[in-house]
């Protein structure tokens, strides 16, 4: 519970509206994992889906009711439509499914734009109002708390404000205690939207919520402007996932509400979890995190400019809008051709290497990094490879734990349709020449397996090292399959994670380079 | 020239501030290509870089001056600092470099936050003002038009408004004709920022510009709010590229100004070019376009929800905030497990296939698509593969132009360090069994080369087919290199482009599937 209690709602709809995003498909266990993370963060409401309309959502609520989901902070919300036109509410199967879900809170979606009522629902305003009132009343009588999502509210209000307000009134008459103004098509801008919200609050006195889509790239701004105009309930999705351009990003909205408006909308200790939770939710959605995302992106506090990098050495707080640590993020200095010496010096400091008194080394490393980057390498995301490069230049590296003589990978798609990948490596380790062969799902997997098989008897620490993530980027798309490939490998030993990079025209060789760096980097840490 | 002429400036800084974005590195010819695209779009000003500070930027201006860049709409702008503290302006090398660049317009950056003046510049307010005034005056006397970027303006104004205003006054005294208020650390929100802009306009009467960073996810909203408060000059970058969370996105800002505020800030015919230019600029930056970007993203008008998809058949304009064609984008209906029959029916219509009277086929295809998507396939971006699947189900496909017997790929990293990829395919084509072997840069390239070698003597149309783009996505990052791989291949025959998809645990087999679909799809079009 936050200090604001029920007086301000952070309402998450990642599992319902967020799941409309292109490329997002949650399984039921994904949905449970998402709900647990959001609850841990301390949001007040988690909209779990549309029971009765989507089988997976029905199952999600059933499993939650069976005890597969225990919430500490949040209340679970079922989303659904009002009764259909001309049908009695108690006979409406979809409404029944909302009750059956067992969710203590129900959010009903209703049309609040006369054109939608007439052209999409093909009914009239009076019946639309009755549908809203009846359904809310029915659910409230069954002990549910009910919110109303007034779809297309802003467009409808501009076209015919009377109809839009009547929709809200019908909901409140039925017993709804929040009416949520939805910018469903996402065409609003903050100043105009804030005026409408203030107008609605003044004219109705209702408790107002806000739900914004990002079609003008203003969803976060619109949400904040609505709060400043009187809304006390914000609907968001993790990382802004959602249909078309997406929804208002939970993390930016919360970041702004807490750090800019001073509203404690999450439990105090949760703010520092924003970055971690954002990345975990991206993982579950299987969408690469947006590195430029406000507050939580890996670049959100990354400084590249040589100009600023020198000033940052003097006074970091002058160059960040907040302390990155407050949201669990870090300031990073990027090593690129634009950054130059000052950035690399700072980067060295991160690795515990003092380059201040080694101006010649610094010059050499800057030149080497520039050359490599010109060939497609990138150290921005591969600190471990950069550290190896720096230490190599300073002659601080021990002899590598192994050396390669050769490898061969054979891929067979046989006549019976089976596919076999087999790799053989010949390496020198601990004074011995070792040959090992292994199969794998693909060429890189086979190569990794063969290398491990060869090394493990000699390097026992290898056992703890695992691949966390493997990313492939084709660098120029001018040449189709003969482009240069950059591979990033994230490894872990259960305690630390580190990322290495490999670049080559051949994807297998690029992967090999990144895999080798990962092991060499681990070797530098063994015995520390 | 727009109808607004000089009274409203669309000022692009993709080549300077945008180049600070993590992962962006422009070559000089990239920079020229970017400038040509922006000029074609009709922006008023193109900030080309910082001559004298970055060698590539110096060269860019030199080549532009030599005639490598002919601008129809825009004026080229050189960016740079004021003279250093305690140095005469005519002796300042960096200021000299701005003149030498030959750019008709110069934007000077100056500190307007007292803390930055004292702690980063280590000088006092009076000297800072003199630096601004002297430098502007010097450049104006040399015939340049000068704008002032007042760095950290909003933070500075909140801390000590007098100092911030004195910076602006010094610039105008020197002859600057726009003072640009910069939210350099990006911490502003629209309502507060609009108040400050209105306050500055009211107190000074100066012509005011706006430059926003996206650290609160409000850069676009802040830019629009500033215009509503009186700013008549907006600084943006293509696709919001820029340091940390990025800058205000040119395309969203222009889209909003034109379609929401009715300001004709670009030549009338340019609006429909927004999507094309955005994607071309992403290509040059070598950054995958953001599919969820407002106005220009491939998902910006993509509808997934089964609910909405049925309504869209009735009345598309109810579900888009603008006509997608107005910005050169398209409405798309996504085929996913959530979409169901209505979406697939609409999709069939796009391919010229009428599924309305084939309900059984529709049921089978929906089920098949769901099964494949559960296994990692995605047809959202691979229309050509979906079309093949649909036609196959309708038995509308001819026999495939070739069939595979087997392939083998061998990769050797030899003892001398050379790397060889060789592929052999055995295929049946035009009644013959053909065996062909070829080498390539990597396994997929070798396989593609061998397949072409085998087929070309029998399928002459193959000659025109080229790979445009090849994308690899590792689907679950839980298992490192044994994850499932999805490959998207974009092909072209010089007239059309089409995308196919392949999914497999083995990256080479996934690529093979996508390559084969690409050729089979082309075969369905031969002779049309």
Automatic annotation (TrEMBL), chains A, B:
NCBIfam families: citramal_synth. One of its GO terms (biological process) is isoleucine biosynthetic process. InterPro entries: 2-isopropylmalate_synth_dimer, AIPM/Hcit_synth_CS, Aldolase_TIM, Citramal_synthase, LeuA/HCS_post-cat, LeuA_allosteric_dom_sf, PYR_CT. One of its GO terms (molecular function) is (R)-citramalate synthase activity. This is Citramalate synthase. SUPFAM superfamilies: 2-isopropylmalate synthase LeuA, allosteric (dimerisation) domain, Aldolase. Gene3D superfamilies: 1.10.238.260, 3.30.160.270, Aldolase class I (3.20.20.70). SMART domains: LeuA_dimer. The keyword Transferase applies. It catalyses: pyruvate + acetyl-CoA + H2O = (3R)-citramalate + CoA + H(+). Its EC number is 2.3.3.21. Belongs to the alpha-IPM synthase/homocitrate synthase family. It holds the Pfam family HMGL-like. Pathway: Amino-acid biosynthesis; L-isoleucine biosynthesis; 2-oxobutanoate from pyruvate: step 1/3. The keyword Acyltransferase applies.
């Amino acid at each position: 519970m936050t200090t604001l209690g029920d007086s301000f709602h952070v309402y998450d709809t990642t599992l319902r509206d967020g799941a409309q995003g292109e490329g997002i498909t949650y399984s039921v266990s994904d949905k449970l994992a998402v709900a647990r993370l959001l609850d841990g963060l301390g949001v007040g409401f988690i909209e779990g889906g549309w029971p009765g309309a989507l089988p997976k959502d029905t199952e999600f609520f059933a499993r939650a009711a069976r005890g597969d989901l225990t919430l500490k902070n949040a209340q679970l919300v079922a989303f659904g439509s009002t009764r259909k036109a001309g049908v009695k509410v108690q006979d409406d199967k979809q409404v029944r499914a909302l009750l059956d879900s067992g969710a203590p809170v129900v959010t009903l979606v209703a049309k609040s734009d006369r054109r939608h009522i007439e052209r999409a629902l093909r009914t009239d305003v009076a019946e639309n109002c009755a549908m809203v009132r009846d359904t809310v009343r029915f659910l409230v009588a069954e002990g549910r708390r009910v919110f109303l999502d007034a779809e297309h509210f802003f467009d409808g209000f501009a076209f015919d404000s009377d109809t839009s307000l009547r929709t809200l009134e019908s909901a409140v008459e039925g017993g709804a205690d929040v009416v949520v103004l939805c910018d469903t098509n996402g065409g609003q801008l903050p100043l105009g939207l804030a005026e409408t919200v203030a107008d609605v609050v003044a004219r109705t006195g209702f408790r107002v919520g806000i739900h914004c889509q990002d079609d003008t790239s203003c969803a976060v701004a619109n949400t904040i402007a609505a709060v400043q105009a009187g809304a006390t309930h914000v609907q968001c999705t993790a990382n802004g996932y959602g249909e078309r351009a997406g929804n208002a990003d939970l993390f930016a909205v919360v970041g702004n509400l807490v750090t800019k408006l001073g509203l404690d909308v999450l439990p105090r200790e949760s703010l520092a979890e924003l970055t971690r939770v954002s990345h975990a939710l991206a993982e579950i959605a299987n969408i690469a995190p947006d590195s430029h995302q406000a507050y939580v992106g890996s670049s959100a506090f990354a400084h590249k400019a040589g100009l600023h990098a020198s000033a940052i050495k003097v006074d970091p707080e002058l160059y960040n809008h907040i302390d990155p640590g407050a949201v669990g993020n870090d300031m990073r200095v990027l090593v690129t051709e634009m950054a130059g010496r000052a950035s690399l010096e700072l980067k060295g400091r991160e690795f515990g290497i003092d380059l201040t008194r080694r101006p010649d080394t610094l010059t050499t490393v800057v030149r080497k990094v520039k050359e490599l980057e010109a060939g497609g390498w990138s150290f921005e995301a591969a600190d471990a490879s950069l550290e190896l490069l720096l230490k190599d230049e300073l002659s601080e590296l021990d002899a590598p734990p192994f050396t390669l003589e050769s490898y061969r990978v054979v891929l067979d798609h046989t006549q019976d349709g089976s596919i076999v990948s087999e790799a053989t490596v010949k390496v020198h380790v601990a004074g011995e020449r070792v040959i090992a062969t292994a199969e794998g799902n693909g060429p890189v997997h086979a190569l990794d397996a063969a290398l491990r098989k060869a090394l493990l008897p000699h390097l026992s620490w290898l056992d703890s090292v695992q691949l966390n993530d493997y990313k492939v980027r084709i660098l120029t798309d001018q040449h189709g399959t003969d482009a240069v490939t950059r591979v990033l490998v994230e490894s872990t030993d259960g305690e630390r994670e580190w990322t290495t990079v490999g670049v080559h025209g051949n994807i297998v060789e690029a992967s090999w380079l990144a895999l080798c760096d990962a092991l060499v980097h681990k070797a530098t840490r063994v015995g520390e």
